[in-house]
């Protein structure tokens, strides 16, 4: 049946009309229905939908802002680290360059001096070139690491022989400082890893231990414990403050002035940690100031 809507006063009415034919002729029946309840319901639904839409839009905007910020956080952190890295690298390179220039200026100003007479200044300059070469080498390693170019060349080899060889090469340096270098190396400890990188890691840990130990001993232990192979480098050196332990593997970070005086670049432990992480090994440190440090590599 058809209907029409008519407004009477302030209310809307729906008017249904039905025609009938009977003996007396055509009859019309009309029914009036107040639509106020329907209007209230439709208004309520419309308001709910608008509210849901607005709330959804606000939530979407908030989530978008949060997720965008969260997604950009690693980019922002990487950018800041890169800026710090460039600034630190520039500073570290400037220092040896300044020393080289200063010593060579002294040599050039002594026009009548022989090479032998200026040997001290030339030796100083030469020493700084070695520092620069080491620093540049380490910077290149970390640059490759950042670009994921440091691919591993995996092979199976005796890590016992590697550590023994490194200890032998370090014994002369330790002896010159009256430090005892003790090697407790289990035979035939083999690993599947990158030979060159694992040797570099061993060199870094043992060299650091010798470098920052003034008296006492450095103990290098390689052993198998259950299913793990452990390389432990322990020293009786200057140690590391507890507050510095969390940052000891950061690039260019030196825990204190004593470590700076030893001429380190502040990159060795960063490289060691990268090599360990690349192999999915664990490298940890325990240390007490003026007692010593203990670095443990779990393979």
Explain this structure:
20% of the residues are buried. The chain folds into three domains: 3-34, no CATH class; 35-150, Signal transduction histidine kinase, dimerisation/phosphotransfer (DHp) domain (Helix Hairpins), CATH 1.10.287.130; 154-298, 2-Layer Sandwich (Heat Shock Protein 90), CATH 3.30.565. The termini are far apart. The chain is built from six helices and ten strands, in the order βββααβαββαββααββ. α1 (36-109) packs antiparallel against α2. The strands form three sheets. Strands 5-7-8-10-9 form a five-stranded mixed β-sheet. A three-stranded antiparallel β-sheet has the order 1-2-3, with no helix packed on it. Helices cover 51% and strands 25% of the residues. The protein is an alpha+beta fold and 299 residues long. Mean pLDDT is 83; it is low at 257-261.
Task: List the keywords.
single chain; 299 residues; alpha+beta; Helix Hairpins; Heat Shock Protein 90; 5-stranded mixed sheet; 3-stranded antiparallel sheet; 6 helices
